[in-house]
Amino acid sequence: MNIDYPHINANTLGYLLDSGEVLNIQCRARDCRHHKDLDVRWMIKYANKKGFEGFNYPTLHKDLVELFNFKCGKCGKSDIGFSQRAGK
Ligand SMILES: [Zn+2]
Fold this sequence. Notes:
The chain is of the alpha+beta class. It contains 3 helices and 3 strands; from the N terminus they run αββααβ.
């Protein structure tokens, strides 16, 4: 269990899509804290294109960072975290 990401329960992109839960990405830079919701459908397609089984792609921090190489859209730093919440 990764102590940095206690809100992530589901462990695949397919689960996220099925459950309608929202995956949010946050910049951890102290002076930024920019955050936004990610498009899980897009993530699955992207993973498929990269040769993974997108639906079964894991949502652990290290796996997301490795495949998507996320950077903050505001400050450009790659010190980011993820959280998950129930959809509407
Ligand atoms: Zn930032």
